[in-house]
Amino acid sequence: MTSGQEAALRGLHDRHATELWRFAMRLTRDPQTAEDVVQEALLRAWRDPELTNRSEAASRAWLYTVVRHLVVDRWRSAAVRHETAVDEVGERAVTDRTAEVLDRWLVTDALGLLSRQHREVIAAAYYEGRSVADIAGRLGIPEGTVKSRLHYGLRSLRLALQEKGVTAP
């Protein structure tokens, strides 16, 4: 760089640095960030040998454009958005179980509307995981009766849930 270009760039700095800092300050609202942006813009001007050949108005417009682009780039950067890279994905987030709790509440209410015999076989089969033969042996009734109570109990349960506004998927 020649001494004439260096003098022109110093003059550019002296004439525009304060105004550029104010402009960057309005955009960023952070003095340190505004200073960093102006410094980067002037460094780019230093690297651009054609800037000294432009008119004063063109040089000024170029500097303001560079400052604006640098601020936009900072806003878009991951560091500003507080994003960080990780090597491993952490544990999965705990899902909201509100729907599950509400479903259980609805089923419990609907089961309360069934007869004792129907509720008894449904609870044994679906909540305790017992087989038809096991339920029949525990209750002292034939297996066919267990199957019948399960069938009609589930049908009544479905109707009770429909009355509560639950629809089949």
TrEMBL record:
Domain RNA polymerase sigma-70 region: 13-79, 110-158
InterPro entries cross-referenced by the UniProt entry: RNA_pol_sigma-70-like, RNA_pol_sigma-70_dom, RNA_pol_sigma70_ECF_CS, RNA_pol_sigma70_r2, RNA_pol_sigma70_r4, RNA_pol_sigma_r2, RNA_pol_sigma_r3/r4-like, WH-like_DNA-bd_sf
PROSITE patterns in alphabetical order: SIGMA70_ECF
GO biological process entries: DNA-templated transcription initiation
One Pfam family this sequence matches: Sigma70_r2
Entry keywords, A to Z: DNA-binding, Sigma factor, Transcription, Transcription regulation
Domain of life: Bacteria
GO molecular function: DNA binding; sigma factor activity
PANTHER family cross-referenced by the UniProt entry: ECF RNA POLYMERASE SIGMA FACTOR SIGL, RNA POLYMERASE ECF-TYPE SIGMA FACTO
Name of the protein described by the UniProt record: RNA polymerase sigma factor
Organism of origin: Nostocoides japonicum T1-X7
Lineage: Bacteria, Bacillati, Actinomycetota, Actinomycetes, Micrococcales
